[in-house]
Each structure stands twice: as C-alpha cells, then as structure tokens.
Amino acid sequence: MITRKDRDAALPGYFPSAxxxxxxxxxxxxxxxxxxxxxxxxxxxxxxTNGRWNVMMIxxxxxxxxxxxxxxxxxxxxxxxxxxxxxPESLEVIAESPQLPCGEHVWCGAxxxxxxxxxxxxxxxxxxxxxxxxxxxxxxxxxxxxxHNGLLILSDGSIVTKDLRLAGQGPSTVTRLSPDLELLGPxxxxxxxxxxxxxxxxxxxxxxxxxxGIEHVWRIRVAPDRLFVDEDxxxxxxxxxxxxxxxxxxxxxxxxxxxxxxxxxxxLRAIYGQHPNGxxxxxxKLSWRRPAPWxxxxxxxxxxxxxxxxxxxxxxxxxxxxxIAPPVHxxxxxxxxxxxxxxxxxxxxxxDEASLRVAWTVDARPSLQPVVFPETAELVxxxxxxGDDQLIVVDIPSGEVLSRVCTGSRVANGMFLTPGWGRDIYxxxxxxxxxxxxx
Length: 439
What we know:
It is a single chain. The protein is mostly beta strands. The protein has helices at 4-10, 266-272; strands at residues 43-59, 65-70, 81-86, 93-96, 110-113, 119-123, 126-130, 136-141, 148-153, 159-163, 173-177, 188-189, 199-203, 206-212, 217-223, 226-229, 251-253, 256-260, 300-304, 310-313, 328-330, 335-339, 346-350, 357-362, 371-373, 378-384, 389-395, 401-409, 418-419, 424-428, 430-438. The strands form 7 sheets. The chain has a 7-stranded antiparallel sheet with strand order 4-3-2-1-31-30-29, with no helix packed on it. Strands 5-6-7-8 form a 4-stranded antiparallel sheet, with no helix packed on it. A 4-stranded antiparallel sheet has the order 9-10-11-12, with no helix packed on it. Strand 17 (251-253) and strand 18 form a beta hairpin.
C-alpha cells in the first residue's frame, strides 16, 4: 500500500522539495510533515505590504522560497505576472523577474518548481519558464486566449494547465506542454466549462486528471502522446439553473474527490464577464462578501473515484453559502474540513461512517487554501474579522482553536498558505504577505 508519506516523498516531475507546488502536490491534500505545536505557544507575524495580488509561495531547495502573483490592475496600465525569490525569514526580495505578459487577463495564476530545477509560472494566457534567479528562460503564449487557473506537473515532466470558464462561456480546454514549452498536441476541449483548478493522481492503473465542470466532474486519462476524456466516468454534482453554484478544486483522498460547490460568486462573475478577464470589471462587484447569487446552503461533496457515486452534506444552516477555496480531507483523522466564507462558519466533517456527519463547528470566516499537519492534528486557516485577517490553528479531531494571530493584512482572499521549514507558515493575500512563527 502506498502511504501519504511515500507518495509525498516521490512527487515525480517536481524538484525534490516538501512544497514545490500549490497544495503541496497534485492530489491537493495540503498536508505538511512536522507541526507547529501551537497550543500555549507565542505567535508572531512578519508582514510585508507590497500592493500586489500575492497568490502563492513555493519551496525549492533548502531555504529557497519563491512568491508568484499578478498585478491587480482591473483598470489602468496593463497587468502582468511576476516571480520573486524571497529571504525566508525577513521576506525581503532577493531576486525578481521582469514583468511577465499575461494577455491582459487579471487572474491569480500558479507557480511550480520542476525536476529540471527551473520554475514554471502561468498567468492569464501565458506560460513562462524561469531560472532559480527569476530570469526568463522561455515564454509561451498559450493557444487559448483566456485566463488559466492553475498548473500541475505530470510524472513525465510535462506541464498541464486549464483555462477558466463559467456557465454559458463554452468548454474549457486543457493544454499540455513539454518542459521547453512546446505544445504536446492540440488543447483538449472538455465537454463543459470549468472553474476549479485541476487535481491529478498517479496510480497503478495510470495517471488521471480530475476537473470539476459546470454540472459534472470529468476524469482525463493521461497517455504518453495524448490526453482524453474518460467517457465511462462523469458524475453529475449539480443541475444548471438550480440553487447551487459551481465547484472549485478537488482534494483527492481515500478513494474520493472532495469538493465544495457555490464558488462562482458575484466577484468571479464580474471578472469573467469581461475579456480580457478582469479588465474593466465593475469595482463595486469585486468583493467576495457580497450576497450569493443562489439560495442553496454550502455543500461538501464526496465523489467516489470508482463508482462515481456522490455523498453530500450541508453543514451550515444559512442559505446563500459561498466560498473561494476548496476543502481538505485529512485521512489520518477521518475528518474533512469545510467552511462558508460568505455567511461564516468552519466545520469538521466526520468521514469514518456510512454517511457524512458534522463533528464540530467553529465561529470563523475562512477564505484561504489551508495547511494541515496530520502528525500534530493541526489545521491552519484564516479567520477574516472586518478588515483584520487572522490565522487560527485548530485541533483537527475536536475543533478547539489552539492559537490565533493577526497577520496585519486588511484584505482576505482565497489564496494559498505554505508551510515553512520549522514552526512557521507563509501567508499570501491581496496587497500583503506574511510569515507567522510559533515559539
């Protein structure tokens, strides 16, 4: 049996690092080794305000920390992507890329450290390959003029990315490139549009990519010379025109894909109602705190990877739930973490019984992609409190809040947390970044 530790240690295609890509790996389990041991500890934050859309930090070699993002230029001069190499303690910039073209699309993009040692970055409709000092090695304008949501590196070293589309905007496409940024066949058109980022899994039966669409979840089979849709597996998780919104990314764990729906909130619809995406989007609609454009409660969905059957639970009572980040399942503790960003609420869902069950709830308003430490049973996530974005550490089995610290960031977003090399967490949001340590 392949354990989580064995799988994480390999991460074929990536630089040998504990966190070379968003969520720590292609299964998006967001799990780090070690722990913060936050109970009773003192927490301090080192915060830098840079005025940028800070998306994610990844780790390459020992002490090598990279920050990728975009410029939140919804109006005015054209936006661009960028990559910085940071001092892991002070967060001071050591090296920085030139402005990276993005096709004028304003979207968060993604960053990953390849096995060849270089950094790959997607922003809007462009992919870039950069060296460890943030110099551009190669640039590729992608064949689809649309903002792309995330990238992953497959086991053969090829890079895959997908464009983002909402309901009524046509099918999304998956593009596969070589490490030299040459196209490996034409883009694969999905049967539907797709909003969430892609997840993938390398199994004894092959390599598979999982993509939540407008109504269905799609499985893509990876062959050496092509990608193709698995026509025998496409579970339907929502009905068009119903009371539920679209799903963000999935977390692959224990034979299931874990999803939350209700993601295409007003701010996302405003960004993707424009082309280039985000340009001249109406400012008054860009807050994720606006009421949801549906009545449905926030749902957590468990999609069986074998049968395609779906189990669901709505852990919060309020209607009109909404999120801007996906859930995380922690198999070591038989708990899946879900939340409602619009109404507030954080829940631990017990997954060791025939049906899903709420094990605990916390009065919090999360929005970020969290990090979990299974060994110490700690969840790290944000709690946005009226212009004060705080990090909380929660005991995974019980829901007890073990620690709380202010980041100094006044804006919360759905971006990524990253574990450090010790008892620390790196935080990214719009306008600010932070390193939080527990002593």
